[in-house]
Every structure is written in structure tokens, then in C-alpha cells.
Amino acid sequence: MLPVENLANIFGLLSALSWGAGDFVGGYATRRASAYSAVMATQVTGIIMFPILALVFSESLPSFNNLMWGGLAGFFGAAGLILLYMSMARGKMSIVATLAAVIAIIIPVIYSAINEGLPDTFKIAGFIFALIGIWFIVRMNAGLELGTKDIKYIAVAGILFGLFFISIDSFSSTGIYWPLTFSRITALFMITLFIKITATKITKPTSNAIMLVVLAGIFNTGGVVLFALASVAGRLDVATILSSLSPAVTVLLACVILKEKLAPRQWVGVVASMTAIVLISI
Q1: How far is CA 151 from CA 100, 166, 214, 265, in A?
Q2: What mean pLDDT do residues 47-62 have?
Q3: pLDDT tens, 229-279?
Q4: Domain limits at 237?
Q5: Which residues make Cβ contacts (< 8 Å) with residue 181, sequence separation at least 6?
Q6: How far apart are CA 193 and CA 172, in angstroms?
Q7: How far apart are CA 280 and CA 282, in angstroms?
Q8: Residue 201 has pLDDT above 80, yes or no
Q9: How confident is the model at residue 88 (pLDDT cuts 50, 70, 90)?
Q10: pTM of the entire predicted model
Q11: Is residue 253 within 8 Å of residue 23, measured between CB atoms?
């Protein structure tokens, strides 16, 4: 049987794979449908899947405190996804997803250091390599034209995702699926209310776009569950760093499917990210 720490690393990496694929599919879908459609599909997918998982694993009903944390996670996650998808629809997926990931890492790492103490030397070195890897991927896209509004969207999305990580960690030790169900219900209500208040027009998605947003919802739901399991089995900062390597998946998918080219220095970023995984896993 694998040690708990190794299991946490595996869950974190699988979360990165699932979230990275979800970001790619969701961002691509917003070129054919509105960002709100993609996010709402994600919430509905979770509302369907999470109770089923709770029943399958016989998870007991959570406390009111855990439901509150679930609600906060729903708010932060949905708001972040809207801003992320809107940004990805306006610019190259690689830079948008990576910048948001860099910002999202900072808050949980600080929070974990305060509450759990500093990690060992190898993990700290892994965190540094992870940031270097993400930076190199971003740096090669620095010449892309992104307006001030785009940068603000990306920055706020990253902050919201950081708070999303902390919220999940706050309830995941005592229950996962019921709080996540409540988070999705909260997010769906919030998005629906926001659309009505702002009189936002939602473009009716094509049949192909519907399949894409549903697929994005499935990947995103899987990423959330795997991250929660990683945070239960190990440290929040480790779970956050590993899951935040998801841009590597988004970038590779963008290269293969959308023919976005990776520059040589971006490959250095990939190597640095792989080094980070090794160091964190030691």
C-alpha cells in the first residue's frame, strides 16, 4: 500500500491533469458559447455527480460550518472560472492559464506555512522550480497583446482560485462530496442571479459547444475531487503546487490541437516543472 504522502502527490498530479484538460476544453468552448454557459454546465455536472459519489462512499451529512466553507468554495471557484474563461476567449490559452495559476499558488502556500509550518527543504526547492517552470512558460508569451482589462481578469481569477483552494482544505478533512454539492448549488445560484441582475445575454451554444461545456464540467469536477483528496492526504501547499501545474496540460493540448507553438525556453519551463514534481515527491 502506498504511503499517505505519496498518495497525496498522486492525487495532486491527477488533479492537475483533470483541471488542465478542463481549462483547455472550457476555454475552447467559450469561443463558440458564452463563458457563463461553460461555468453553469460545470456547476450542474457537479450537482449531479457529487451526491452520487457521497452515496456511493457512504459519506455522512456535513456540519453547518462545512456547508458554509462549501458555499464559499462555490463562490470563489465560479467567479474565478468566469474570469478565466473570458480571458482565455480573448487571448492565447497558454499565457492566460499560466498567469492565473501563478497567482493562485501564492495565497494557499502562505496560508499553509502559517498553519502547518514550513515544509522540508526538498519541497521548498520543488515549489521554487514549479514557479520557475510556470514563469518560463509565461515569459515566452510576454509579447502577446493583452489589455489592462484582460490582466485584471487574470489577476482576480488567480486570487479567487487561491481562496478556493483554502476553502476546500477547510472542509475536506471531515467530508468532501456533500460540501462540494453545496458549493455547486451556491455557485449556480450566484451565476444565475448575476446574469439576471446584469441582463447578460447568453449566446445559445451550438450542439458541438454543448458537448464541450459538458466535457469541461466533467474534467473540472474531477479536478476538484482529486484536489480535495490530495489536501486531505497531505499538505495544502503541496496539493496546491502540484494541481497548479495544470497549465502544462493546457499548453500541450493547445499545441497539439490548436497548433500553438512552444518556444525552446518554454520547454525549459516544462523541464523545471518535471523537476519540481520529483523534488516535491521525495
Answers
A1: 10, 23, 27, 23
A2: 90
A3: 998 888 888 888 888 787 778 777 888 887 777 777 777 877 888 788 888
A4: 4-281
A5: 46, 47, 50, 51, 54, 70
A6: 28
A7: 6
A8: no
A9: low
A10: 0.81
A11: no
The grid coordinates listed for 83 are 474570469
pLDDT digits (tens, 9 = 90+) for 118-129: 888 888 888 888
Identify the CA nearest to 248 among candidates 278, 269, 275.
Answer: 269
Q: What is the pLDDT of residue 95?
A: 66
- The DSSP code sequence of the chain is ---HHHHHHHHHHHHHHHHHHHHHHHHHHTTTS-HHHHHHHHHHHHHHHHHHHHHHTTPPPPPHHHHHHHHHHHHHHHHHHHHHHHHHHHS-HHHHHHHHHHHHHHHHHHHHHHHH----HHHHHHHHHHHHHHHHHHHTTTTS---HHHHHHHHHHHHHHHHHHHHHHHHTTT-SHHHHHHHHHHHHHHHHHHHHHHTPPPPPPPHHHHHHHHHHHHHHHHHHHHHHHHHHHS-HHHHHHHHTTHHHHHHHHHHHHH-PPPPHHHHHHHHHHHHHHHHHH-
CA-nearest of 200, 211, 180 to 77 is 180
Nearest by Cα to 244 from 142, 101, 110: 101
CA distance 180 to 138: 31
Q: How deeply is 10 buried, as exposed, middle or buried, from its count of CB atoms within 10 A (0-12, 13-18, 19+)?
A: middle
Distance, in Å, from the CA atom of 135 to the CA atom of 242, rounded to the nearest integer, reads 15
Question: Into how many domains does the chain fold?
Answer: 1
> What integer is the mean pLDDT of 29-53?
81
Exposed / middle / buried, residue 105 (Cβ in 10 Å: 0-12, 13-18, 19+): buried
Contacts of 4 (CB under 8 A, 6+ apart): 233, 234
